[in-house]
Fold:
Amino acid sequence: MAHLSANTPPAGAVAEHTLGDAAASQAALDEIIAKHSRDAAAQIAEVYAWRNEKDKAFEWLDRAFNNREGGLTLIKNDVFYKNIHNDPRYPAFLRKMNLPT
Structure:
């Protein structure tokens, strides 16, 4: 898994979205995708989930699963995924990971 700090685009993308700056959020996300799409799919999924872009969030969660990213083991306690908890794909994804729903 990529080692990303609070100053990296995932944090920036989330913060900018929360502050209402969609363009800055997208620019930060585009940067992380360009630089870390192969090793930070879970973090990219977090941003999409936080922004309530559920289809993209699940697309990147599947990538993270296929890449066997270790950060996924914490998915149930990760606040960035709260917007997808009510989506029927969320419990299905937890089952795919052999986690309790």
Remarks:
- The chain is about 55% helix and 0% strand.
- Residues 1-7 have pLDDT under 50 and may be disordered.
- Residues 2 and 36 are 7 Å apart (CA to CA).
